[in-house]
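EI: anyone free to look at a 433-residue chain?
SC: sure, send it
EI:
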Amino acid sequence: MKKEETKKRAKALVLLVAFLLGVFSVAAVSGHILLQLMPIEIPIEEPLTEYNYTKVQISPGYNHLQMKPGDEKEFSVKVKNKEEVTVSVNPRVVIPPYGEYQLEERWVEINPGSAEMRAGEEQKFTVKVKIPEGTDRGYYSAQIVFTNDTKPMPTVYRIENEKIPIPHPPEPFPMYVNVLHLSVNVWTPPKILIQPTWIHDRVEAGQSREYKIQLENKGDKAIAIDPEVEGVKYYGPYGPNELPEDWLRIEAPAKVDAKSKATIKVTVNVPADAKGVYETVINLNIDDPSVEEWNQMVHIHIEVWKQPTTPFKELFTVRQGEKITVEITARQCAFFKYGGVEEREKPSFVVALSTPEGGKLTPEPSKTVKKGEVSLGMGYLPPWEAASKGMYHVMSTVYSERYTLTNATGGVWTLEILPRNAESFEYVIEIGE
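SC: here you go
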C-alpha cells in the first residue's frame, strides 16, 4: 500500500514539475511580442521509495561566531544516539555552494574525528575554528555533517526541443539530516570613527542650518574620504520628500590623517516656499574596508516649518467675579545639538484675552518657568568628548508661562495664542480659585 501511495506522489510531482517548467519563448516581430508555449515532459530517473535515516540528536544545531582575522575559537557539540543499535558518527565539514563568501574546510578542526556510539550514548565533540590573517570581512557559512543521511530529492533528465534546448537543472545540494549549521561573521574593528550618523532637525522655511560631522582616524595611515549625496528612494505616496541635492553644500577634506581628527561641514539651505519633511543620505565613501557600507552613511531628516501669522483661539465661559488662570507650555526637543547647531531662540507667545463685551486684554505673564531634561549618555558625543564637560546633553527644554486675571466679567471669553519658535504647545485654562 505504501508503494502505491509513493508512486502516486511521484506521478503528481512529475506533473507539477512539468507545469512549472513550461517554457515561453519570446520573439520580437514588427514591434509585437509572440509567446509560444512549449509542452515539456520530465521523467523521474527512478521512482521515489521510502527512506530510512540514522536518528541522532545534535545540540546545538546552529552556532554563530563573530571573529577577526587571526582569531581562534572553539565550542562543544553534543551528539546523542537515538537509535537502538550502535551508530558510527564521522563528522566532516561541508561547504554549501551558495553565499557571498566560502568558508574553507581547513579552517575547522573537529575532535574526535569519529565515534562508535552505543544505543542511547552521548558523545561530546569539540569544534575549533581558526580564521587566517588577511581573510576578507564578510559572512561565511558551513555545515558540520555527522552522518551521510540526506533527504530524498527527485532527479530530472535533460530534454531538448527541436528548436530551443532546455538546460538540465543543476544537481541540488544534498539536504543533510544530521547537521550543525555554522555561521561565521569575519570582521575587523573600524579605524575611523564617525559622529553623528543621524541628523534630525527642524528648520524654518527660508533659513539655513550648518551641521558638523566629526571623524577620527585611529589608524596608522591616512584614510581617504569623498562625501557625496546618495539620496533616498521611496516607494508609495506616503514617504517623506527626498531632500534636493541643490539645498546642500558639503565641505570636506580629501583625507583624514593618521591619529588625527577632521570635520565635514554640511550646510542645508531651505527655500522659503518649502514645506513638509525631507530626507537624504550622505555617503562618506571612506576608504577603509573595515567600515561597513551602511555604517558610513549619514542620514539627514529635516522638518520644514513656518511661523504662524494668525493666533489659535479657544472659547470658555466664566461666572461673574471668578479668577482666570491660563498656563501655556511649549517643549523644545534637542534634535541635534552636537555638531554645530547653535542654541535656538526659545519659544514665546503673544497672548490675548477677549472679554464678553468685545474688549481685548494683553496680560503680561505672572510666572515663567524653564525646565530641562539632561542626559549623560555617550550616544550624542564623539568618543574623544566622552570625558569632557561636553558629556551633558540637553534632551529637551520646557518653557511655561502663566497668566492670571482676577474678578473677571461673567460670560464667554476668548483665549488667543500666537506662538513663536514653538514646535508645539499645550494650554490649561483654570477658572476659579
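EI: The radius of gyration is 35 Å.
SC: 👍
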